[in-house]
Design goal:
Elements: H1 2-9, E1 33-41, E2 47-55, E3 62-68, H2 81-88, E4 93-97, H3 111-126, E5 131-141, H4 144-154, E6 161-164, H5 171-185, H6 191-206, H7 217-221, E7 228-233, H8 244-254, E8 260-265, H9 290-302, E9 310-311, H10 333-359, H11 370-395, E10 404-405, E11 408-409, H12 410-435, H13 442-465
Parallel strand pairs: 3-4, 3-5, 5-6, 6-7, 7-8, 8-9
Antiparallel strand pairs: 1-2, 2-4, 10-11
Helix pairs in contact: 2-9, 3-4, 5-6, 10-11, 10-13, 11-12, 11-13, 12-13
Length: 470
């Protein structure tokens, strides 16, 4: 049972990975730029390969920036080629590299290891001819927005930090907001989002299947001493663009760092690319002015012109994100596994035992016809909830919850109806048993006792998951 639950909760790890190219390798030099192939050591001595793009006609040592990509295993350097090309054309030396696949899977990832990889890239770029080693910093996209600050907090080699679509909240909070927003766009509201999806995410983290779910982003930012540039797209559908900047500011200020700049591009997507459909699709081009901002800001901060808490008005996001704590002990993966095991044994066992007796020619009149409804409705509701939320998790950002009525998908309404029927049937069965207590055979008492025990456990379980909540 635990293994089955583990596989189901593994759907939580359908985190938004950028599309990977078919193969990683050398990058040809774009017009007006040079391309230098490099290799360096990352965490655990792993050799990582990358490319440094720089202007062909550079005057004096250049500032440099290492680009740290978003989530996904083995993301090739070409994924950030547009950013690298545009930044290099603004006078920067830019290192892009193939992300590790070793030690990075749907079931395991380590921001600490990725941060060590990024610092290895910083050391390599600092050593490149024509690069000013005192002016090399880090740029992180999405997941890289957790990794780049962590790397900078560990080493003064990084002169600055840029985060794009970054989060100063836990990954589980960001991911639940991301997936819940997809449901809200489909017209869904209520307990499916507030309890079902949120608690399923916590269950995944409890089972150690949601890697880095409670990464302490504010704690890391408190240790960052370098100037920070935060950039968000107003059409970001993956990271809450209104909630995160104040969280960044508070964490940086707690650490005594007021050298930050926050800017927003209203019509840009998660990666600050142009988007033709309000963030659903990533366009090829960067948002107008984005590359200019990065180039000018890096030149300013590496020349000693540091910003002082410079932020633009926040963009508006459609739905707020919600802080998510780890599961309490009574809702842990072990307790959930025990509850599901009880439901299977009791709810499925009740009719199966009756069938076995009929096959042996021993018929016992049931205490109440309601007992069969309790068994059938309870088992269907429990199994249906697990598989329906699993389906929604696997669908990621673009779920199809089915027809929606008054904010509730019809499959969810059906599960809620079954849960209510199970509760009513349980109460009716208990009343009938009490009235007929003296005439109930011992074997039937055991069977009914187990069934009613499962029915009693089902009530708080269904409330927790939202089946008995509007």
């Amino acid at each position: 049972m635990t293994a089955a639950l583990t596989l189901i909760v593994g759907a939580l790890l359908s985190v938004l990975s950028p599309p990977a190219a078919s193969a990683a390798g050398p990058v040809p030099a774009p017009a007006g730029l040079t391309a230098t192939e490099v290799s360096f050591q990352g965490f655990g001595g792993l050799t990582l390969r990358g490319t440094v793009l720089a202007p062909q006609k550079a005057r004096g040592p250049l500032p440099g920036v290492v680009l740290v990509t978003g989530s996904g295993s083995g993301v090739p350097r070409e994924y950030l080629l547009t950013e690298a090309t545009e930044f290099a054309r603004r006078g920067l030396a830019v290192l892009i590299y193939d992300k590790r696949s070793a030690g990075y899977t749907q079931f395991r990832r380590s921001y600490s290891e990725l941060a060590d990889d990024a610092l290895g890239a910083v050391r390599e770029l600092r050593a490149q001819p024509g690069v000013d080693p005192a002016k090399v910093g880090l740029w992180g996209l999405s997941e890289g927005g957790w990794v780049a600050p962590l790397a900078a907090s560990r080493s003064a080699d990084a002169a600055f930090v840029i985060v794009v679509g970054g989060n100063a909240m836990t990954p589980i909070r960001q991911q639940v907001w991301n997936e819940s927003s997809g449901l809200r766009r489909a017209g869904v509201s209520g307990s499916l989002i507030d309890r079902g999806k949120r608690n399923f995410a916590r269950l995944g983290a409890d089972a150690d299947l949601f890697a880095e779910a409670f990464h302490d982003a504010p704690g890391v930012l408190e240790r960052v001493r370098q100037p920070v540039l935060g950039i968000w797209g107003g059409r970001d559908l993956q990271t809450p663009p209104e909630d995160n900047p104040p969280l960044f500011a508070r964490a940086l200020r707690r650490g005594g760092n007021t050298h930050y700049t926050f800017r927003f591009f209203p019509e840009a997507d998660h990666g600050v690319h142009e988007t033709p459909d309000r963030g659903l699709t990533r366009g090829d081009a960067l948002a107008p002015g984005y590359a200019d901002l990065v180039g000018s800001w890096v030149r300013d901060v590496t020349s000693g012109r540091l910003p002082d808490a410079d932020t633009a008005p926040l963009p508006e996001q459609d739905y707020p994100s919600v802080a998510i704590a780890p599961s309490p002990w009574w809702a842990s993966v072990w307790m959930q596994t025990a509850a599901l095991a009880l439901f299977v044994v009791a709810f499925a066992g009740y009719p199966l035992a009756a069938l076995a007796r009929r096959l042996r020619g021993r018929t016992v009149r049931p205490v109440s016809r309601w007992a069969g409804l309790l068994a059938g409705a309870g088992l269907t509701a429990a199994a249906g909830l697990v598989f329906y939320i699993f389906y929604l998790m696997a669908a990621g950002r673009y779920p199809d919850p089915g027809p929606v009525l008054a904010g509730r998908p019809l499959p969810w309404l059906a599960l809620q109806g079954l849960a209510a029927a199970a509760v009513c049937a349980g109460a009716a069965t208990a009343v009938s048993w009490r009235r007929a207590a003296g005439s109930v055979p011992v074997a039937e008492r055991v069977r009914l006792g187990l069934l009613l025990t499962a029915g009693a456990v089902f009530v708080p379980w269904a409330v927790y998951w939202g089946l008995l909540v509007p």
